Amino acid sequence: MASGFIRAGEVGLARKLLKLARIKQRTLHPSIYVKLMSEAARTPEGYGLAAALVDDLGERPDFDLRPQDCTAVMKVCVKLRRYAVVESLFSWFRETSGGSPTVVMYTTVIHSRCRDGRHREALALVWEMEQAKCLLDLPAYRVIVKLCVALGEQERALRYLSRLKEAGFVPTGDMYRNLIEGYAAEGRLAKCRQLIREAESAGVKLDRRLLSRLSEIGGRHS
């Protein structure tokens, strides 16, 4: 029943059902909590409910999550800026599952560390993911390119962009934007123009404000 309310977007009703189950001392499957918190975290108005559900789930003596549910809770915690919980879940999964993290889980933890300003630790996890022969998908490449630019390693980011294209993916506008902004910060305007031409030839639309700023910078340097 709770799952039906969640699918219908009736988060409030699902929450009442959870309270009723607690009063009657009945235990609902952890996946119900995960679905509810994921739905609640879709908007900032639901962050309070999502945070309460994360706490409720963590207090359960029978705490156990499937890999996909563990990743879903991590994603919610990134939105809530509860980065320590992400790390705790990651450690718990590696200690108890006996399996390897998926590319989605790795990407979520890397993103969490970036949001928390722990870029070097995020990069260490990229190396771990690479050593595990984890096949990168588009979201993973997006996070890694952004991480490399944040570290001021534009050339490394560019290599990942090349690998992405070799794998058959099309770079997104935000990936080009991150790289262009990184090179612009170094004053490498020729490289910026090269990336702009590449993006345009690939049919990727770039932010007009970014192009305007680059035009102004180019004017000052001409």
From TrEMBL:
Q: Which Gene3D superfamilies match?
A: Tetratricopeptide repeat domain
Tell me which domain of life the UniProt entry assigns to the organism this sequence originates from. Eukaryota
Repeat (PPR) residue spans along the chain: 102-136, 137-171
Organism per entry: Arundo donax (Giant reed)
Q: Which UniProt keywords apply?
A: Repeat, Transit peptide
InterPro entries xrefs = PPR_rpt, TPR-like_helical_dom_sf
**Mind telling me what this protein is named?**
Pentacotripeptide-repeat region of PRORP domain-containing protein
What PROSITE patterns does this protein map onto? PPR
